[in-house]
Amino acid sequence: xxxxxxxxxxxxxxxxxxxxxxxxxxxxxxxxxxxxxxxxxxxxxxxxxxxxxxx
Length: 55
Description:
Layout: H1 3-24, H2 29-54
Helix pairs in contact: 1-2
């Protein structure tokens, strides 16, 4: 497992936890959506890098 892919996946999961936390705190929807998009991009980038390692 590549170090960068691991970091991207961990950051994506951290941001996903932030989405859950912000949603429970009833913060503005724009902040939650932006954080969710950043989380999704990190997770997708990490998984795509993993596919490059395993291919």
